Amino acid sequence: MNAILNFFKPDFLKQKRGVHPPEHKAESTQLPIAKLAMPQKLVLPLRQHIGNMPKILVSVGEHVLKGQLLATPECTVSAAIHAPTSGTILSIADEIIPHPSGLPDKCITLIPDGKDQWTNLTSLDWRNAPKEALIASLCTSGIVGLGGATFPTHIKLRSSGKLNIQTLVINAAECEPYITCDDMLMREHAEEIVQGIEIAQYLLGAEKSVIGIEDNKSIAQQAMQAALTGKPISIVTVPTLYPSGDARQLIHLVSGIEIPHDKRATEMGVQVFNVATVRALYRHFTFGEPAINRVVTVTGNVAQPQNFEVLFGTPLTALTQAAGGAKPDTTHYIMGGPMMGFDLPTPEVPITKATNCIIAASPHLFAPPPPAMPCIRCARCAEACPIQLQPQELYWFAKSDAFEKARDYKLFDCIECGVCTYVCPSNIPLVQYFRYAKSEVIAADKAKEAADLARERNEFRLARIEREKQERAQKHAERALGTKAEAAKAASAKKDAANEAPTTEAPINSATDEAAKAAKQAAIAAAIERAKAAKAAADATGLAPKNTAPANPAVQQEIAEIDARRKNVGLANTNEAPMTADAEKQAKIAAAIARAKAAKAEAEAAKQAQNLELKE
Amino acid sequence: MLTALYIMLGLALVLGLGLGYAALKFKVEGDPLIARIDAILPQTQCGQCGYPGCKPYATAIANGEADINQCPPGGDAGVHALADLLGVEYKPLNAEHGAPKPKSVAFIDEKTCIGCTLCIQACPVDAILGAAKHMHTIISSECTGCELCVAPCPVDCITMEPIAETPDNWKWKYPVIPIRAVPLHEVK
Question: How much is the ipTM here?
Answer without folding.
Answer: 0.81
